[in-house]
Amino acid sequence: MGPAALLLLLPSLLLLFLLIRALLELIPVSRLDKRSVLITGCDSGFGFDLALRCLGAGMRVFAGCLTQTGIQSLKKSAQEKGIALELLEPIELDVTSDESVAKALEFVERKLGPGKGLHALVNNAGISGNESWDDWLIPKDYEDVFQVNTLGTIRVTHAFKRLVKRERESRIVIMASSCGRVALPTLGPYSVSKFAVEAYADIIRTELILFGVKVAVIEPGFFRTPITNLDRGNAILEKIWARLPEITKQEYGPNFYKFCQNYLLFFLNPTRLNPPEMVVDAYWHAISSAWPRRRRQVGLDMHFFYWPVSMLCAEFQDLFFLLSTFIFRIPTPIGCSQRWHSPLAKSH
């Protein structure tokens, strides 16, 4: 086969693969109304909306909420939508606590009955934690986010995995992120936790093939959720700046802090964020399709920026960041400009 024929064959094979995958993904799971799902992080956001979507489809939903307020809010919304509350099994669940997860497992097993299992486990619970430059953070900032996003996912999966194994066509769904593909400046703790989640998903996906259990990863960009609330972001930034040692404040300077405030105003503008329904749709596909996609990217920013950038070598990724310093006019930290000629824009 000549080079020209090979160049034609490879795109054809790729298109054939994509077509077959798309057709397989359209095949639905049978009798969803007879199946059960456990979802963590149902107090608000994606988990809250997904629980209502599953209830509306007639599924039995074990909804893990961190607080009683979240449980009551979910019940109220279900009632307002005319959903039968007997399908909703709310659980007060803290994914960072072994004791809480063990109690939740006991509750679910008792409600399911002997020999019954879960069609799907959705690891949705997550936090963004403190977000800022690594120089401004402390190890506990990383630990707090890792406890929820990574160890919380592992803890819940370990506890409920055997219930998922009991059912045919079952699956574990894991919330990752664009930050699990591209580690973004100022999002260190969150990015570290999501890179670890991506690795864990790869591990259990290959291991659970032996049991016929599928693992689906959702990789969203940035969406309108409580995590991306501007007031919350400003409050975190103020708290972090206030606790900084004076030597670090002097190293960066007040202009740099002012830039961070303005950058939040731009970056967390609701008009620039994707609508949350896109993630709920991706979750629902992972639950309801007989052939869920192993990794699904969600959001325009994920498809057209984060995912392509993640395919680049480190040198080109660094170039993107360097260009962004000019686009966003990132000021040079005072300490940096005193030591060497920075490629960043000068501080005003």
From TrEMBL:
InterPro entries: NAD(P)-bd_dom_sf, Sc_DH/Rdtase_CS, SDR_fam. This is Uncharacterized protein. The keyword Oxidoreductase applies. Keywords: Oxidoreductase, Signal. One of its GO terms (molecular function) is oxidoreductase activity. It holds the Pfam family adh_short. It comes from the Eukaryota. Residues 1-22 form the signal peptide. PANTHER family: 17-BETA-HYDROXYSTEROID DEHYDROGENASE TYPE 6 (PTHR43313:SF7), SHORT-CHAIN DEHYDROGENASE/REDUCTASE FAMILY 9C (PTHR43313). The keyword Transferase does not apply. Gene3D superfamilies: NAD(P)-binding Rossmann-like Domain.
